[in-house]
UniProtKB/TrEMBL annotation:
Superkingdom classification of source: Bacteria
Pfam family name, one: AAA_16
Protein name: ATPase
Every Orc1-like AAA ATPase domain range: 29-192
Organism: Marinomonas sp. (strain MWYL1)
Segments crossing the lipid bilayer: none
């Protein structure tokens, strides 16, 4: 995207009436279809009789003012029309017009100031001002004076009125009835208006202007119109910017469509975002944005005030979220039931407040229809340090900028700061960059340090308190990325920064890295202790594991597990059972621990319980072992549970149960993955079956599941045991396998004696 500011063009995008004629004509790239339609209506009419009047409706920033201004210029420059048709364009905000009388007075003042025909109407405004005030009659007399002047000089007027509905809101019912009569019966004037609000009143049969105006709606820009607008923006920004936009259109058309959707297809919002991005941290564009938001505030505030009690929190939730949101999410944020929300959303769609984003199921998404209204809401009602306040700008930067462009913006950031910067704009642009997911933490640190140094030099230090710091979860995310790349030192650095921002769970992760990845048990212990000091509950259990398995301090291990249980981590009962059974040989305490684990819903404790009886050779507990192993499988059929069940069943001489469990292992959906991850487990099971003299079973499984190559030592051990049936197969074994096979045969004999 362009990096060269084009400040001279910025205000013109928000105030098209103040744009020079040459510039407006040159940059008029969209709404051409509507322009041609209306120009045809105007140019082909001689207004010999009352004409059709029009209202152009569309959200703020849709291009209504620009279209009205362009039509006004075309009338003024037309040799065929300008001799008898005088165009008058009222400003977007006409605070002096509060009645039909003041409306006619304002028209008279404009006619007196006309650069060609002003002399024809000299004294008209003064004559109207001298009319005696009288309810309704003064407006009639004012128009009579205006109409007589037009007839006298054989001229007519076409009035372009922006925000026409807001203007009419100031008129009394009598004024509106008189105006309708004039527009219906008089051929000397024609109105083309613009409106940023839904024209519900014009469809109400009780309203004076019911079905009176022909309405043209400016919808979202089409894909082609979006391309035309972007090219126009690029040309205004300079040659480099234009080239960049052309490349984006050619190489990443899907990105253009994403921008269209993000902005709701509204030209002004699109132009605003590109202006801010082009200018960078200097922030002048935000000054114009603030002015525009201020101008829009009365209308938008009125829009919010008109909402019902139930609609206000719904709109608030949607606006604060910026991205499209589901009914379920709205319900969570507002605590209003889903049925009520759905009913209100239907109404809000009719009011042009909310639009529905259809999905491939019934759970549709909803967002604020007018994206500029959403920007206004976030900027005016977002808390000062609210991350979502600038979500609209962050989303645009993430969507439009390539990784290379983002890196360039980071490196150029400090050079864009200057003492004449618009500080609120600098803060906003900086905050948006700091919120981007595509900018690394290291790059954000650069931005933050430059911004902090810049704001420290300014007279107003309040900006320092509003500068958002990099949050702990970003450091944590960066740490996970480093862990994926096995860059553990860098991961620890990020986690330490997260911990310094009060994310004390980072100590737990640092401890885990030192324990399992770097093998530094002392530092692992130190960080687990820091974590438990700050009430990171899960760290107690990890500390217990460290003391049990690596440091072999069993008293500390026991205390760590008990601390975990005291703090509500009932997982620790199962690990405490392991400690008591295999390390401390206290089988009574082990049984109590496993029973507690089961009581608290730890289904894996069933298999652990059964395994204790097996591995600790508690032969008098075989019937308990088989029961617990079965329950372990029935409460969650997984590799670990089935493995224990096979072992316990063979130990207990329950051959049928063992075979059934083994078949389930082979036929599980994750069989191949489990085999790859647990090869030694499968090897142990084959040895146990061979110890139970189940040679034909093992032979069948090896062949059926094509495991001969993977388990070649087992295969040759099996062939030795079956040499009466396969007398020559054992002889094929390579010499390199002889020692391994001999060891396996010895192990089979050992198991046969142990589990006979």
């Amino acid at each position: 995207m362009p990096t060269v500011p084009y400040k001279n063009e910025i205000p013109k995008k928000y105030n098209p009436q103040n744009t020079s004629t040459a510039v407006l004509k040159k940059t008029f790239a969209i709404r051409l279809k509507e322009f041609k339609r209306l120009w045809k209506e105007i140019s082909q009419s001689d207004m010999a009789s009352p004409e059709q009047h029009y209202i152009i409706q569309g959200v703020r920033g849709a291009g209504k003012t620009t279209l009205l201004t362009r039509l006004c210029i075309e009338v003024e420059e037309s040799d065929a029309l300008s001799a008898w048709l005088i165009p008058i364009q009222l400003k977007e905000e006409e605070y002096g017009i509060s009645s039909l009388f003041s409306f006619w007075l304002r028209i008279a003042e404009d006619l007196e100031e006309h650069h060609l025909y002003g002399a024809n109407f000299k004294g008209l405004a003064e004559a109207i001002e001298d009319i005696e005030p009288e309810d309704g009659e003064d407006a009639k007399e004012a128009f009579k004076a205006l109409n007589n002047a037009l007839n006298q000089h054989q001229q007519k007027i076409i009035i372009f009125i922006d925000n026409i509905t807001e203007l009419f809101d100031h008129f009394s019912k009598v004024d509106l009835a008189i105006l309708r009569e004039v527009l219906s019966q008089n051929a000397n004037l024609r109105i083309i208006g613009g409106s940023a609000v839904s024209l519900e009143n014009f469809y109400d049969h009780k309203h004076p202007f019911y079905q009176f105006f022909n309405v043209i709606t400016l919808g979202k820009l089409t894909k082609d119109e979006t391309l035309d607008l972007l090219l126009a923006l690029g040309e205004a920004a300079g040659e480099d910017a234009a080239q960049q936009i052309k490349l984006a259109i050619e190489q990443q058309p899907e990105k253009i469509e994403s921008i269209r959707r993000l902005t709701g297809g509204v030209p002004r919002t699109m132009a605003l975002l590109f202006d801010i991005l082009a200018e960078g941290p200097h922030g002048t564009t935000f000054g114009y944005l603030d002015d525009t938001l201020d101008m829009a505030s009365p209308i938008y505030k009125h829009r919010m005030d008109d909402l019902s009690k139930q609609q206000k929190p719904i709109v608030h939730a949607i606006a604060k979220h910026w991205d499209a949101i589901s009914v379920k999410e709205i319900a969570q944020k507002t605590r209003i039931d889903s049925k009520t929300i759905s009913a209100q959303l239907s109404q809000l769609q009719k009011q042009w407040i909310v639009e529905k984003i259809p999905t491939d199921n019934k759970n549709h998404l909803y967002r604020i229809q007018e994206r500029f209204f959403n920007i206004w809401y976030l900027m005016r009602y977002g808390r000062r340090r609210d991350k979502n306040k600038l979500l609209w700008l962050t989303r645009f930067i993430e969507m439009w900028c390539t990784q290379e462009d983002l890196t360039h913006r980071v490196t150029q950031y400090s050079s864009g700061l200057s003492n004449d910067a618009y500080l609120p704009g600098t803060l906003a642009y900086t905050s948006a960059l700091l919120g981007c997911k595509n900018i690394s933490v290291n790059e954000k640190e650069q931005i933050y340090l430059h911004a902090r140094a810049f704001f420290e030099k300014q007279n107003d230090v309040s900006y320092l308190s509003l500068l958002p710091e990099i949050e702990s979860d970003e450091y944590a995310s960066e740490a996970y990325a480093y862990i994926e790349k096995k860059e553990f030192k860098q991961a620890i650095e990020c986690l330490e920064k997260a911990a310094s921002r009060d994310d004390f769970s980072a100590y737990y992760l640092i401890g885990a890295i030192y324990q399992s990845k770097l093998g530094d048990l002392k530092l692992a212990e130190e960080n687990f202790l820091k974590a438990v000091k700050h009430n990171v509950i899960e760290a107690y259990k990890e500390l217990g594991d460290l003391y049990t398995n690596e440091l072999e301090d069993f008293l500390k291990a026991e205390q760590s597990y008990l601390n975990a249980i005291e703090h509500g981590d009932n997982r620790a009962y199962r690990y405490l059972g392991y400690l008591y059974s295999y390390k401390l040989k206290d089988f009574f305490k082990a049984e109590q621990a496993y029973l507690k684990a089961i009581e608290y819903g730890d289904n894996r404790a069933y298999s652990s319980f059964a395994a204790m009886y097996l591995l600790c050779d508690l032969n008098d507990k075989k019937h308990h072992a088989i029961d617990y192993a079965k329950q372990g499988v029935s409460n969650g059929e997984n590799h670990g549970g089935l493995y224990i069940l096979v072992c316990v069943a063979l130990w207990s001489n329950e051959l049928n149960i063992a075979i059934e469990a083994m078949e389930k292992l082979f036929h599980s959906d994750t069989w191949m993955k489990e085999l790859e991850e647990n090869t030694n487990d499968m090897l142990a099971l084959f040895l146990l079956f061979l110890a139970k003299k189940q040679t034909h079973l093992v032979d069948k499984w090896l062949k059926r599941f094509d495991l001969t190559e993977q388990f070649k030592p087992i295969y040759y051990a099996l062939m030795f045991l079956m040499k009466d049936e396969y007398p020559n197969e054992y002889l094929r074994m390579g010499s390199e396998l002889e020692e391994t096979v001999t060891e396996m045969l010895a192990r089979i004999d050992e198991l046969a004696k142990k589990y006979q």
